[in-house]
Design a protein that fits this description.
single chain, Triger factor/SurA peptide-binding fold, 2 domains, two-stranded antiparallel ribbon, lipoprotein, cell membrane
């Protein structure tokens, strides 16, 4: 079974854009009084200001670093395709609202920034010959299997017995497998490589020889599997596999949040971004070196902590009396 992929927005990509310049102009009236643009701006700034500012800074910094690119056009094309896949803007906008997006423009900004980040990470990431060679040694080529998924172990054991007695694996998959994505195809998964399936399934599959069937049910979060190996691709030479290996290595880097943050930190720090508004000064702190605490600050904090501890003990003692 394929690993579950959770599509989550990075924290700095989920806020709506702040209103323009603040003024005293009234935006709403209530029995208790007027709400001005100043009040609206201040409230939005306090709740999502750092989030939005971070997004805008990253887009500017990455645009400057990457230079001319086709990512905006790619983003727009992908947005239109996605809207079409959902059957039109009405359904698409509903899905966006349920996912925390204010509108399609915000979603498009998020999509564009994700593409910028990926492009920047690819440009900043290289692999040494030693790294590629080490990966090659552990690299396993793609395989293709059939599988039958059922809800309980007893049923799986019974199906294994039927297969051992000569029953056709594909027909049993069509009749019994609860994996609707593969059942109609006789349980065939198609080619997949290491890291693409849940661990227990993958480990059992790779242990088989062509034509061999697992003799005990393989338990995963989805249920119980019977697996049959039908194809093993040959592992080529290092040079033959290099492109595939580097693609897999890059995909792993792009899926590593710590690595992404590290690359973005290097880029943001090199850009020497200066935030003028003190209220929003922490917008890019996660990409900056941790602020060191001075010895005087540390002494002050320790003294304050001791005083607080003493007060707490005193209060506890008085309460007991």
């Amino acid at each position: 079974m394929k690993k579950k992929l959770a599509l989550t927005s990075v924290a700095f990509l989920t806020a709506i854009t702040l209103a323009g310049c603040s003024t005293g102009e009234t935006v709403a009236t209530t029995p208790a009084g007027d709400i001005t643009k100043d009040e609206l701006y201040d409230a939005m700034k306090a709740s999502i200001g750092e989030t939005v500012l971070q997004r805008l800074i990253l887009i500017d910094v990455l645009n400057d670093k990457i230079g001319d690119n086709k990512l905006e056009a790619e983003t727009e094309a992908e947005l239109l395709t996605t809207i079409e896949q959902y059957g039109g803007e009405e359904t698409f906008n509903y899905i966006l609202s349920q996912s925390g997006f204010a509108n399609k423009e915000e979603y498009q900004d998020v999509l564009y920034l994700n593409k910028l980040i990926e492009a920047a990470v690819r440009a900043e990431t290289t692999f040494t010959d030693e790294e590629v060679e080490a990966y090659y040694e552990a690299y396993q080529p793609q395989i293709n299997v059939q599988h039958i998924l059922v809800a309980d172990e007893a049923t799986a054991v019974d199906l294994i017995n039927q297969i051992n007695e000569g029953a056709d694996f594909a027909e049993l998959a069509k009749a019994n497998s609860t994996d609707t994505a593969t059942a109609e195809n006789g349980g065939e998964t198609g080619l997949f490589g290491a890291g693409e399936m849940v661990a227990a399934f993958e480990e059992a599959a790779y242990s088989l020889e062509v034509g061999e069937v697992t003799q005990t049910p393989v338990a995963t979060e989805y249920g119980y599997h019977i697996i049959k190996m039908i194809e093993k691709t040959e592992k080529g030479t290092l040079e033959e596999e290099r492109e595939n290996i580097e693609t897999v290595m890059m995909d792993e880097k792009l899926a590593d949040n710590d690595y992404l943050t590290s690359v973005m930190s290097t880029i943001v720090q090199a850009a020497n971004v200066e935030i003028k508004d003190e209220d929003l000064a922490a917008a890019i702190d996660q990409f900056l070196p941790a602020k060191e605490t001075s010895s005087s600050d540390a002494t002050s904090e320790a003294t304050t902590s001791e005083a607080a501890s003493s007060e707490a003990k005193s209060a506890t003692s008085e309460s007991a009396n």
